[in-house]
Design a protein that fits this description.
This protein has a single domain, classed as tt1808, chain A, CATH 3.90.1570.10. The chain is built from four helices and twelve strands, in the order αββαββββαβαβββββ. The relative contact order is 0.14.
Length: 181
C-alpha cells in the first residue's frame, strides 16, 4: 500500500468548501484540514486563552499596525489548512484573494498560543510549515507564558518585527497549576 498523496492547495480548498456547510454548526473555523484533507476539530478556547489571544492581537496591532487578525485559516504547503491564533501581513498581501476563503498562502507573521491547547503535540510541524510557506516569523506562546520567536534559521532571541510580548502572568500555568482560579 502506497503513501497517500498530499493535496495541493486547490484540492484542499475544495475539501474546505465541502466541509464548511457541515462545520457552520460547530462555529466558524473551529476545524482545520490536515495535508490529506481530513477534518480536525479544534475545541473552543477557554476564556483565559481567549484573553491571551486578544492580548497578543492588541500587542501586534500596537507595534506593527492594524493588519492583524485572529483565527484566520491559512493554506500551508505541507500541513494542510491550519488556523493560527493570530496572523499579521502587509496591506498588499490582504488584497487579491477572497477573504471568505482560507488565505492561499502563509502570512508574514503567525502566532500560536499553547495555553490549554492540544497544539503543543504538533507545534514543531506548525512552525516548520508556516516558515516553509513564507512566514517571516512565528511566535509561540507556551503554556507557562514563555515566548519563543522562530525564523527561517531557527529560534531567535528577539522578534525581527521588534515585538516584545509582555503578557499578564496570572493567565498562565506555573508548574502545571494556573494562578487564575
Amino acid at each position: 500500500m502506497g503513501t497517500p498523496a498530499l493535496l495541493d492547495r486547490y484540492e484542499l480548498l475544495a475539501a474546505w468548501h465541502y466541509l464548511t456547510p457541515k462545520a457552520e454548526l460547530a462555529g466558524r473555523y473551529r476545524y482545520e484540514l490536515d495535508e490529506l484533507g481530513e477534518a480536525i476539530l479544534n475545541p473552543s478556547p477557554s476564556a483565559r486563552r481567549q484573553i491571551v489571544l486578544t492580548d497578543v492581537y492588541c500587542h501586534l496591532t500596537e507595534h506593527i499596525g492594524h493588519l492583524a487578525a485572529m483565527s484566520v485559516a491559512v493554506t500551508t504547503p505541507s500541513f494542510g489548512i491550519r488556523v493560527p491564533d493570530v496572523v499579521w501581513m502587509s496591506c498588499d498581501k490582504w488584497e487579491g484573494f477572497d477573504r471568505d476563503d482560507p488565505v492561499p498562502f502563509v502570512p508574514d507573521l503567525c502566532v500560536e498560543v499553547l495555553l490549554d491547547s492540544d497544539r503543543a503535540q504538533d507545534i514543531d510541524r506548525r512552525v516548520e510549515s508556516y516558515l516553509e510557506g513564507g512566514a517571516r516569523e512565528v511566535i509561540v506562546v507556551g503554556q507557562c507564558g514563555q515566548v519563543e520567536y522562530w525564523g527561517g534559521r531557527g529560534q531567535r532571541q528577539a522578534s525581527d518585527f521588534g515585538i516584545a510580548l509582555s503578557l499578564e502572568r496570572m493567565y498562565f500555568d506555573e508548574g502545571g497549576v494556573s494562578r487564575l482560579r
